[in-house]
Design goal:
The protein has 330 residues and is of the alpha/beta class. The chain has helices spanning 65-72, 89-92, 94-104, 144-149, 168-180, 195-208, 213-222, 225-242, 259-274, 279-294, 299-304, 308-311, 316-329, and strands at residues 2-6, 12-19, 22-28, 41-43, 48-50, 56-60, 80-82, 109-112, 127-132, 153-159, 185-189.
Length: 330
């Protein structure tokens, strides 16, 4: 039995990480990391599956946005991830409270697997819903249609797994499902390959398709599938582009952010994603994103004055990419 237990303190933590290629500065967990233990779920931040739970206590955060606002004020500058959501949202309202608080604090907000009842009003460009694929015989992205109906861009996310989601037929089905649900992007994420993550991956497949469990176990634990992942990621990007879908989620623009700064951060994240195989250069691009998110001033205005490269402590290529984004915003 899954038991939900109210807590007075919001679960908010600094989390310098990537979610589907976009930088996250902090995370709000209205229902803990695994809000719905009935099904395996892929977490794009941790890059691993949660496993089915039959007995657990889920700590539920407060339903008062003001309490969340105070906690958000202690997190680093930059976008926040809220979620995952839970079917218990109708009763508790913690997800909606956390998301509403993040928007009110002026943050760019990624809503991870929101229950429709947890989607905040008036998110607009300040929020993007990350809707992950849930293992099963159907290819679908729960929550994407509801986010679109609320005026929030939906981004489809799934793990690229050779022998499963990485196969051509599965990629085509995932892209079709994302487009049908109204998603603007389809992002494949490389899963972690440590022992615990592999076990969770096998359990998720066995739960969804028991007849494939034995062969999949052999491939995951005794095969060289981890070395195949980069090739499968490239395939997934190609399929997304053929469908007219972006390969990264759009970056939201927080109400307290400068539009030019947000655009430059987005451009550099996309550059880092393109450089994924060049770890050092990708890391530099992500460091530049963090610098821009922390800047606290209108860098587009600095660029218009001709002073951006005097203050931007990174290489010429990154400066040129940021300046191009500033010009496009105007």
């Amino acid at each position: 039995m899954i038991v939900f237990e109210a807590t007075r303190a919001p679960a908010a933590k600094a989390s310098e990480a990537l979610a589907a290629g976009r930088r996250i500065a902090g995370r709000l967990l209205p229902y803990g990391a695994d809000a719905d233990g009935r099904f395996p779920r892929f977490d794009p931040l941790e890059r691993r599956f949660t496993v089915r739970r039959h007995d657990a206590v889920v700590a539920v955060g407060p339903a008062d946005p003001e309490i969340w606002v105070e906690a958000i004020g202690r997190l680093p500058s930059g976008p926040l991830l809220v979620g995952p959501g839970s079917p218990a949202e109708e009763v508790w309202g913690a997800y909606r409270a956390a998301a509403t608080a993040a928007l009110a604090a002026g943050r760019a907000v990624y809503l991870l697997d929101p229950d429709p009842r947890g989607i905040p009003e008036g998110g607009g460009r300040a929020a993007v819903a990350l809707c992950t694929w849930r293992p099963g015989r159907a290819f679908e992205f729960p929550g994407a249609a509801a986010a679109g109906a609320a005026g929030i861009a939906a981004a489809a996310v799934f793990p690229a797994v050779p022998g499963w989601t990485g196969e051509a037929a599965a990629l085509d089905a995932l892209a079709a499902a994302a487009a049908e649900a109204g998603s603007v992007s389809l992002t494949a994420v490389a899963p972690q390959t440590d022992g615990e993550s592999r076990r969770a991956l096998v359990e998720a497949r066995a739960d969804a398709e028991p007849e494939e469990a034995d062969a999949f176990f052999e491939r995951v634990h005794h095969g060289a599938w981890a070395e195949e992942v980069p090739r499968w990621l490239a395939r997934a990007r190609a399929v997304a582009l053929r469908r007219g879908l972006a390969v990264l989620p759009p970056r939201p623009v927080g109400r307290g952010e400068r539009a030019g700064n947000a655009a430059a951060s987005a451009r550099l994240e996309e550059l880092a994603d393109a450089r994924e195989s060049e770890e050092h250069r990708a890391a530099l691009a992500h460091a530049a994103v963090r610098w821009i998110d922390d800047a606290g001033r209108d860098l587009a205005a600095v660029a218009r004055e001709g002073n951006f490269r005097k203050v931007f402590p990174f290489e010429k290529e990154l400066a040129e990419a940021a300046e191009a984004a500033f010009r496009e915003v105007g």
